[in-house]
Amino acid sequence: MKKLIIGLFVSFSFLVSSMAYGAEVIELKLASSNKVVLKFMFKNGSITDPKGKEGLTFAAANVVSGGGTSTMTYSEIQDKIYPMAAGYGASVDKQVSIFTFIVHQDFLDEFYPIAKGLMLNPSFNAEDFKRVMDGQQNYVDQGIRASSDEEYSKKALENFLFRGTNYGHMKQGNSASVKSITLADVKAHYAQYFNRHNLTIGIAGNYSDDFLKQVKADMNMLPDVKAVIPDADPARDVKGVEVEIIAKKGAFGSAIFTGYKMDITRSNDEFAALMVANSWLGEHRKGYSRLYQKIRQARSMNYGDYSYIEWYENGGRNMLPAAGTPRDSNYMSLWIRPVQIASQLKSQYKELSHIKIGHAHFALRMAVRELDLMISKGMSVQNFEATRTFLRSYTKLYAQTPAARLGYLMDSNFYGRKDFLAEIDGLMANLTLEDVNAAMKKYWQVDNMFVTIVTAASEAEELAKSIRGNITSPMSYSNFLKKGLSKDILKEDDIVADYKLNVTSVKIVKSKDTFK
């Protein structure tokens, strides 16, 4: 199947074909490109981790990409590719693992044997294994809790949403499981699950037909094993608003992430309508959205506030949604980046010396209320048209490099689509305001959701008490800031402070007890 796409990008063509053993090959011909990109996507993500060995898929992929081949050590490979300005790496998500290799076409013949050697004959060196596993162990023991509370809240919410399912654990695993992984486990898992029947090959750039033929033949030498890949478990159902507060010693704020199961993915055409609605509610890193305007812009509460209709990889760093994390199990979420806690506010402003909690309860109420208003009132014609016009341009920026374009094509294939970015433009062109408002009512709600809040240990008990009792949570301003606010904002604050959440459960978890 061949399709020519002409748009904001340079013209290119792509081809999806099948190899003799059933694996698909996705080609992205770019005659003007001076780079060649190879991607090997295995439909083997963290859901294939055995119980007690959570993190094994992540370990296997990274021991391969972070190690040597049968003929070269890891250090020798790095020395070899440095003059080429070439690079490679592995990424693992819930349902896929991807190896990506990028090189200037002038060095393709020198670089490809390294890529081939890593995929077919990884060294599985004991020293490489120890180095990689030490890093993975450090992440699950310390990094996830120490590096970013907002990322911590996202990973904790996923555990909350999918607890007890094969989506429930971090792809890196947990403290006990990573300790149990051996080099023998890694070798066996790679041989079993990274096989030729589980592979999609992606290639982009200015390459020859003979080169692609060689890649196909080489990857046909991967193990002839038909591993059983489990279906993705859905998120748990939730009755009411269930809250877990993670009490962390020394936390500088309250990071909030909420979510609930949503039975729709990019494979469904209605996803386009939700993209428009979500963009107006809380487009990632966009100041025009309602959540950003209400929480950050008008009230100076934090750095940013966003909403999502699918997993957004590394949202703290990525300005655009990255390819490489396609999932069958989906959820709607709200991300409130850290707001101030009581101890901070009291130390800065004498007039706030009486408060017991910071902004977390108010911010949670405001975010959920904005979602509620979106569902009940819908978008206006003006906002719909402006947002749709923006998104039709913005989505064309998602894939600005050959690697990103190829990644999106491979994700499209995962969802049963040909080219999501091209198709979404057509779907949006035909959307009506009624379509968007109907989709919100069909897929969005505010009565049943999971909420994770990472906050200071000193704040946890009072915050839990406030949320559990639906106690009025007035916004706490300094006198100076309050003087500059309009009457409309202050009036809205009073309404938000008493907005009732359908709270059914509030629990406090010590940070040290997470991801064990």
General description of the model:
- The chain is an alpha+beta fold and 516 residues long.
- The chain folds into 2 domains: 218 residues, Metalloenzyme, LuxS/M16 peptidase-like (Cytochrome Bc1 Complex, Chain A, domain 1, 2-Layer Sandwich); 198 residues, 2-Layer Sandwich (Cytochrome Bc1 Complex, Chain A, domain 1).
- It has 19 helices and 13 strands.
- Strands 1-2-3-7-4-6-5 form a 7-stranded mixed β-sheet, with helices on both faces. It has a 6-stranded mixed β-sheet with strand order 10-11-9-12-8-13.
- A hairpin with a 6-residue loop joins strand 1 and strand 2.
- Helix 1 crosses helix 7, helix 9 packs across helix 13 and helix 10 packs antiparallel against helix 12.
- The radius of gyration is 24 Å and the shape is globular.
- The two termini are 47 Å apart.
Class inferred from helices and paired strands: alpha+beta
- Approximate strand percentage: 15-25%
Gyration radius over CA: 24 Å
How many discrete domains? 2
CATH fold naming of the largest domain: Cytochrome Bc1 Complex, Chain A, domain 1
Unreliable residue runs: 1-11
Helix content: 40-55%
Give the overall average pLDDT. Answer: 95
Distance between the termini: 47 Å
Number of continuous helical runs: 19
Based on Cα principal axes, name the global outline: globular
- In order across it, which strands form the biggest sheet? 1-2-3-7-4-6-5
Describe the main β-sheet briefly: 7 strands, mixed
At the fourth CATH level, what is the homologous superfamily of the largest domain?
Metalloenzyme, LuxS/M16 peptidase-like
